[in-house]
Amino acid sequence: MNGCGEPRKVKTGERVMSEILKIQHLSKGFGKNRVLQDFNMTLEKGRVYGLLGKNGEGKTTLIRMIMGIIPADSGEILFKGKKIGYLDAAYKRDVGYIPEEAFFYSWMRIADLLEFNASFYPGWDAQKAGGYLERFSLTRKSRIGKLSRGMKLKLGLVVALAAKPELLILDDPTSGIDVPTRQDFLRNIIKELSDAGTTILFSTHLVHELERIIDDLGILHQGRLILEEEYEKVKNSVRRIRLTFENSAPEKLDFPGILTAKKENASWEGVIYPWNEGSEARARSISGARMEIKPLTLEEVFMSFVSEDKSGV
Amino acid sequence: MLKQFLLKEWKEKFPFFILAILLFVGLAALAFSGKAEMAGFVAVLLLMAMLPLIGVMIGSSSFAAEFKNEAWAYLFSRPVKKWAVWLIKYFSQLTVLIATYIVFFLLLKLLPKAALEIIQSSSLRMGRSDVSLFSLSLLFSILAFTIAFSISILSDKQLIIFLCTALIGIGSAVLFEKYLALLFQLSPRTRLQGTSFQGALVFLTLSFVAASILTLEKSDFSQQLKKTWLFTKFVAAFLVISIVISTAWTLGIFHSEKKNIRSNIIIAGDAAYFGTEKGVFRYARAQNKPKKIDGTGSALFLVDFSVGGEKLAVLKYKLFKVGKAKMEAPVLLVMNKDGSGKKNLLEDYLKKDSPLLDQLLWPCLISPDGGKVAFMTRDWKNKKYGICSINSDGTRLQSQPLNLPEVDWLRFVGWEMSGKSIIISALSKWGTAESNSEILSFGLDTGSYKILAKNLRNPYSARVSENGDSMVFKFYDEKDSKEVLAKVDLRSLEKEEIYRGDSIDGLCLSEAGDKIAFIADKSKLGIYSLPEKKMKAIKAIKELKAEKQSSLSYSLSWVSDGKKVVFSDNINGGNYLRVFGEDLRQKKAIKMLFSPWRAQISALGNIVFVPNFMTQELWTVDIDTEKWQKIY
């Protein structure tokens, strides 16, 4: 990156859990545009992983490669420890996928789509599908072409969940749907799934949605995962610091782990990661400055990591 | 999974099926309400144009449903292999096309008979084999469907796919024509062209199948240009591979096929001659094995040859280069009996002012002294026959029109002894109950003819003696419903009845022309002396197989230099060559090595030639030693 140093990839290995999905050195480009470069990511079983990235950063490309829809240029993807290739199909029985757009055949009725999908998945739970249909107020006879975007999302969810996946991949599914549906989806359904032990990879650019539901956080920026960490730890170790000087503030702020920094008259405001005892001691050692320390929301964390403005760092 | 996938595809394509059937029924009703000829014409049009068009329509929309809203991404995220997706879609939609074809086929059954005959006769002539319109229509439809289907993985724009398919179709047709011309040169027997043509269509179809599946497997669907480029490369590669395989396949068939025996065995002097698809062979008595004396010609036409005096005449067709074009042209070779000293008498054939240009030449007959060759001509345009003669040194080409009404087929029987006339058998109303043959003497200088005999029924039942002074033949006498064996003196035209009976089979003149052997009434063997004008012997032969309804006639041959008669027969279920002396006593019965027992046999000295048309082999057996030998 620039003044704030190399992209940070932090992994504290305190928890010992089994990896369900591991991506190593994955690269993908379209023409001269390199979308992903040497991309690495690890999903642990039973957790909700929030993959954040701005629009066009390659989240959908990454998920399409995981789902074997498009090939990678290089690198490898391991599902439950086994390498999966572009042409492999069997692993998809254990992976549910809800794309950004509900790509269904509009001429089909809901019942047709369920029957069509049931044929692919040996573990298809028709009862479960029926239960979700009822819960989402979907009727089997409805033609898919006539469903609203929210209804289609729910239908996609029915299809994905009835297949009883071990891993559920959600590619920005809530963008463009109404607030009540989104809230129900995030607060209730994702939580239920998570509680039931399903691993979830939730990719989105609507960061605030994930605040309450994710266990792990990954930030995709400029083709690389610049942060991968347990979200709780991130929350605890990222701080916004404001240093107010009595006279005038120095031109540059020299501080380890600084992500963003902004000078305003006689004060400096910056985001520090990781924030620890050493950071606090360093802040206090700056003479003539009054210090304010604040925690950040997920959205602020994300913005700090992907901020292009590093002028003050 | 398969069932649900098939159901999905069928449901998607069902409107096409209904549309196609409605289209067929509408067009057909329009046509069938009129004349039968019109109905036949429209049906041919539907078969050759509409069905392929429907194939393109179904094929071009194959992946369109997947491209709408990027459904392909959803489909490929299901646990199913991409090639399986392709194959299921392909075969399910192919069944829609075939169902359309079957319904149309059944609709055709409702057509008037005359219309059906038009369709059945509208086959594509490929060399010597016909490729039926139904087979062609199906193959073309599947090819058109496959091309459109294959391209449909590249775009959701059906019009573009449609146009691309049309372009590729036209390009393929042009390439195909060139390719067939190449195949024709590589395997100069047109019998192969039909299978080669169909085989090449199948290989072409498979090329697109393979290219499309591989593109689906290897390409990134989100990258349009890369995907199209990869598909183009695969198509090019598979087309080359399919051309190579198709060529190898054609040549493989060509080389593995038996080269058929394609002529009777001609006995002349101390040698026997026979023609096969490999060329013309000479079997000299002394050498005990055949030697090829002339190679094969073009497959489009049969090779004909005859022996006279010390000369051999061969008429065949070869491919010649005329300017930039290539054309089949006849070659009339006259050579010594051992194959040496070949001379083409028709070297000027290809010249613009040649009187023989635009004429089909076949067959030929060399005169008994080898000095002249006669050959028949038939105008390609007006179908009129003519007879030409030319000296064996290539001089004095004469051409005379043959003005016979209602002639379907002609053959040479032999030369009249003066060398000025030739004896012809003319067949009319061929294939009907009124089929009839006449024997004519045709003046080569004057172009006039005399009818020597009528009511022959079988155009092969006449023999001219070696020196051309007499001819024996059998005819049917309607007065008493008998077959009559008769002789005509070719100088005086005096006729003489030899035998009258229920049937006469296997006429065989001795080499010296003095005796004739025949089977009478399916039970008797007779020998008649021509100089003495009397029946030397005739008697019932024990166990002669009396099959009155048999279409095969007995084949008799003089053997042991005219001292014995041999024919094949069935005795107590076994096949034998039965050898009789002039006293009509059986001298020998030699067990045959193969069926059928009524082989067309010939003899040279003690050697009897027995072809086996089942295996396309030619065997000899020495009637003294009873030793069999395969010579071809």
Please tell me about this protein's structure.
The complex is a heterodimer of chains A (313) and B (632). Chain A has helices at residues 59-66, 110-118, 126-135, 149-162, 179-195, 231-237, 277-285, 298-306, and strands at residues 19-30, 33-44, 48-53, 74-79, 82-84, 95-98, 167-171, 199-204, 216-221, 224-230, 239-245, 258-264, 267-272, 289-295. Chain A has 313 residues and is of the alpha/beta class. A six-stranded mixed sheet of chain A has the order 6-7-8-3-9-10, with helices on both faces. A four-stranded antiparallel sheet of chain A has the order 2-1-4-5, covered by helices on one side. In chain A, helix 3 (126-135) runs antiparallel to helix 4 (149-162). The longest helix of chain A has 17 residues, at 179-195. Chain A is elongated and about 75 Å long. In chain B, 33% of the residues lie in helices and 33% in strands. Chain B has a four-stranded antiparallel sheet with strand order 3-4-5-6, with no helix packed on it. A four-stranded antiparallel sheet of chain B has the order 7-8-9-10, with no helix packed on it. Among the domains of chain B are: 2-256, no CATH class; 502-632, YVTN repeat-like/Quinoprotein amine dehydrogenase (Methylamine Dehydrogenase, Chain H, 7 Propeller), CATH 2.130.10. Classes of the chains: A alpha/beta (313), B alpha+beta (632). Chains A and B meet through helix 2 of A and helix 1 and helix 4 of B.
